[in-house]
Specification:
This protein is an alpha/beta fold and 198 residues long. The chain has one domain: Arc Repressor Mutant, subunit A (Orthogonal Bundle), CATH 1.10.10. The strands form 2 sheets. Strands 3-2-1-4 form a 4-stranded mixed sheet, with helices on both faces. Strand 1 and strand 2 form a beta hairpin. Helix 5 crosses helix 6.
């Protein structure tokens, strides 16, 4: 670099001081844990106030990373592995999977769901009690969209709160088990668990 160019750069940069203050991040911390359960590996995430944001199947690192990225984008960039903050939802899930619990008391938030998906999941919780089943078509009618059974299936397939919001209770019109984020074996296990306990 020429001396003249160095002098010009020095003069222009002399009035600038580097900004060394810490960045301020909006939002709140999200704590998560990955839990191996009888139905598969679940990523559980809660807000600072304990409200559950995710109970998502995460069979591998790629699936785990996808859920964490959605949390960082939709809720807060501070998503931290803090299993202790997920104790309540982990305890309730363990009780449910052992057949000692029929409903969940933890509060949930559908921030990771779209508008239509939230309406489908809300209708599911209201219309299909523990130990019962419904069909995609019946649930579509329940949300006022009688021809949208495929859209209902897609909404359930991306349920961010699996098990807590029981999308496993929805089957094909024939009664056959169809797609489930945790796999058909997990869906069968959950339905059998509820049938025995009911």
């Amino acid at each position: 670099m020429s001396e003249q160019l160095e002098r010009v750069l020095e003069e222009r940069l002399s009035g600038f001081a580097p900004d060394v203050t810490a960045p301020v991040l909006d939002g709140e911390d999200v704590a998560y844990a990955v839990e191996d359960t009888a139905v598969g590996r679940l990523l559980l995430a809660v807000r600072a106030d304990g409200v559950v944001l995710a109970s998502s199947f995460a069979p591998d690192t790629a699936a785990e990373d996808a859920v964490l990225a959605r949390l960082a984008t939709r809720v807060s960039p501070r998503v931290l592995r803090r299993p202790g903050r997920t104790d309540e939802v982990r305890r309730e899930l363990a009780e449910y999977l052992a057949g000692r619990r029929r409903s969940f008391e933890v509060r949930t938030d559908l921030t990771l769901a779209g508008t239509f998906q939230a309406s489908v999941l809300g209708a599911l919780v209201e219309a299909v009690p523990y130990g019962q089943r419904t069909t995609y078509g019946a649930l579509a009618r329940e949300v006022g969209r009688p021809t949208a059974s495929r859209a209902v299936g897609a909404a359930l397939g991306a349920n961010p709160l699996c098990v807590l919001l029981p999308c496993h209770r929805v089957v094909a019109a024939s009664g056959a088990l169809t797609g489930y984020a945790g796999g058909l074996e997990a869906k069968q296990l959950l339905l059998e668990l509820e049938a025995r306990a009911a």
